[in-house]
Each structure stands twice: as C-alpha cells, then as structure tokens.
Design a protein that fits this description.
- The protein is α/β, with parallel strands linked by helices.
- The protein contains ten helices and twelve strands.
- The strands form two sheets. It has an eight-stranded mixed sheet with strand order 3-2-4-1-5-6-7-12. A four-stranded parallel sheet has the order 9-8-10-11, sandwiched between helices.
- α5 links the parallel β6 and β7.
Length: 314
Amino acid sequence: MQLKKPEFWDYKKPNLISWLLFPISKLVEVYSSFFLNKKKNNFKIKTICIGNIYIGGTGKTSLAITINEILKKNKFRTCFIKKFYSNQDDEQKILQQNGRVFLEKKRFDSLKIAENEKYQYAIFDDGLQDHSIDYDFKLVCFNTINWIGNGMVIPAGPLRENIKNLKQYNYVFLNGNLENLDFIKKEIFSLNPKIQIMIGEYIPTNLNEFNFNENYLAFSGIGNHETFITMLKSNKFKIVKHIEYPDHYKYSKNDIKELLKISKKLNCKIITTEKDFLRLEEENINEIKFVKTKLKIVDEKKLIKAILNINEIH
C-alpha cells in the first residue's frame, strides 16, 4: 500500500503529533549512529553519491543524469547505481534512457560489478545513509519549497537524519524553481559555514508541444508535487486543477478513467510529469501529455571543478 507523507511533516514547526512521536525519532537517530563507524569498503572506481536528508522529492535522479552528462563530455566511462526497489521502475527507466544502470538489492554488489566492468565513475541515485560504501564525493539534495519540513527525524518529521549532520558534509545542492534561496542558505551556513552550496533549476524542454491558450488538469505522484505545479505556472500553463498522489504511485485504469472524467467536466487537457507518464497503464494514455524537464545548474563550472577534483577532495 502506498501512502502520502503526513501533512504535519511539512509544517513550519512541529505539532503535537510530532512531539508525541519524538521519542521514536530519537531511537531512529541512535540506531543510525551505530553504522557511522562501520567498516567501509574502498574501490578503485570513483563514487559519487547523490543523496538526501529530507525523504523524497529532492531531485536526486535529475541531478544524477546531469552529472553523468558532465562526466561523459569529459570522456569518462560512467554508470548509474540504484538500489533495486520494485516500486521505483519509473526512475529506473529514466536512468536507463541515459546510461548503464546497475540495479542490485545491495549497492555494494552493484559497485563490485561496475568496477569489474572497468567503469571509471559510479553515480549513485540515493544511498547517502548507506554507510557500507566510502563515497568519494557526496551531494546532499534539498528541495527549495520543502526544505526540511518541520525539521524532525522520521516518524516525527521527514528527515532521515538530524539536520545538524550537515556539519559532516561538504556539498549541498538546492533543487527547485529558485524559491526561498536566501533563507535556506542562511540556515545551512549557520550549521556549516564552510559548506559549498550549489543551485539547480528545473527547465521544461518540450514546451513547443503544448497550447498555452488551453486549460490543464495537472497531476503527479512524485515527492515534490508543489515544485512541479510552480514550474508549470511560471511557464504560463493555465492550471485549473491539480491532483497529488503518493510518491511512486501505481496508477490503475480506474485512476486514469477518473482523470479523464474530471478533465472532460472541466473542459481541459491533462498534463503530468515524465516519471508519472512511465507509470500509467497503456489504455487511454494518448489523452495525457507529460512535461519533460532538464535540471539547469546555475553555476555548472563550480560543480564540474568539484567533481573532477575528487582525488583532492576525498
């Protein structure tokens, strides 16, 4: 069963439910700390981890693809590594469209295979909390709308680890539509004055396929629904209604019929994300279009320099 994240996770401050769950969150933090000193395994292949502290919806896959493009332009042999989850076939398909992907149940096993096949760089889509691998380069992704939600660790909030752990990282990447940047930067620097902050913006790449005089019903089952809607509106889409589903939602034929019914009633077209489109049943999807996006890195040279100097950083 798929569930949407609790609304109180993204409140500006913890509510009563959060405080009631707080003791469990502390146990999660203690449990996670046991793995910090676990024996790590080093590899000749260079490892880049695109991870997050806030659960879901931080643009990891988009950034992994962009970094892959950067490395390929510099003539490196690259691959993606993603832990296999049966409900994440959408992200797996998108990665496979952009390069070689290793999908074992343990990232460590994928890394061994990639090294044996003589790849030079392995780009991990997620895995920041996997302490079995000593990553050469780590990027902690955040979404500029959600940021850290109520600031508490699961289940009291949306964080996988305490936000104070940013002291242990060197690079942060802020994804979104350039919202709240000054506030978030101030918060990050208060935790780690030496950390480097990089910024990305989602850019639609197939706008020529849409009629901007028409009205649209937008839907998505991703971790950053509000960012998707904000991007559409900033690009002059007339969104008359939008519907949010749980992250990695598996759409049924009935879901599609209901969307078609609503669009007919509102006399509008239907639009979604590429990830969601890949999860739709084939029946009637010709009436649904998706927006293809690319992550634009505001200061790409800064990121390229950091990645290509991994040996000096690590």
